[in-house]
Hints:
alpha/beta; 2 domains; 25% strand; 6 helices; nine-stranded mixed beta sheet; Ubiquitin-like (UB roll)
Amino acid sequence: MKRFIQIAFFILSVTLVTGLMAYIYIEHQKKPLQQVEIHVARSSEKGFLDKEEIYKCIEKHLSDTTRLKDLDLSFIEDSLTQTPWVDEIDAFIDIEGNLIINIKESEPVLRIFSQSGSTFFLDKNGKILPVSRKYTPRLLVANGYIKASPIKGFRNINDTIYKNSNLKALLAVSKTIENYPFLQSLISEIYVNSNNEIDLTPMVGNQLIHLGDTTNLNHKLENLIFFYKKSLVYEGWDKYTTLDLKYRNQIVCTKK
């Protein structure tokens, strides 16, 4: 009998707490919207996104009489996701009745100048980002015989429409260079030549670094780092006109 009373008391307690929480939630939803707080996370002080412009995208759905229950958080997130520089977004209502919008800004890693004359950014996930008059980050640049232009909506280089482009290879090279601080300070440009192979342009010295394709990419670039640190430091930056990395376990150099 005692155990039965304990179980009944537990069920009653749970029911009361659940009912109270439901009542609080319903009453909370009837409250008017207090404020809209927008937070943008990015790796630099400046960026593509502006809080005022973000607010303008949603203010037409808000008014002085908007109640919390009228807010469609999924709609707000979907609307702002259409902004190309938004990487991730989370919208929620806090206990005080404020609409909180947390946005992670897309971070470009490479700027493309295509053969057709168009220019755009790629982020680390292959998302194509438009350039902006507001903000131009300093990035590694890729140009040359790049046969790819962003279509309406920009999309991602993993989309079928870009399957025959050089963009995946260029992004792979860019991300690999980013893994090596020495190469980040050395390489200024990625160039696609007329044979659809990749060359690298260093910031110091006049030599051309011929990468070829992305096969054994890490191995090739590690060989390049070793060569620069062990050979060119002593032989001089301008001793060679070309450094060819295409061949496995060796660098073929052409002297001036």
